[in-house]
Design a protein that fits this description.
This is STING protein. This protein has about 90 residues and is an all-alpha fold. About 85% of the residues lie in helices and about 0% in strands.
Length: about 90
């Protein structure tokens, strides 16, 4: 379950990076609409639903230790950012 959480975090981070780049092309590509740019880069509903489902499964499997959950999620975020920076994705 933690692998799926990490994948969703990675997808959200990647979409966020794409959105940051698309801001410079807002007028030309998206007719000045921030919403269109966001939808083109990050499928918010899809990723939010998958992140919620995989996060819930992860919490259920973890057994209730909140500090351990936080540490795992921080490490998953760090690993995904590292993969993006190194171009491994």
């Amino acid at each position: 379950a933690s692998y799926f959480v990490a994948l969703q975090i990675g997808a959200v981070l990647k979409g966020t990076c794409y959105f940051a780049e698309e801001i410079f092309h807002l007028q030309a590509r998206h007719r000045g609409s921030w919403r269109r740019a966001l939808n083109a880069c990050l499928h918010v509903r899809w990723h939010a639903a998958l992140l919620l489902a995989s996060g819930s499964a992860y919490v259920a499997l973890l057994g209730g230790d909140g500090r351990s959950l936080s540490l795992h999620l921080i490490l998953a975020c760090f690993c995904q950012l590292l993969f993006l920076v190194l171009g491994l994705h």
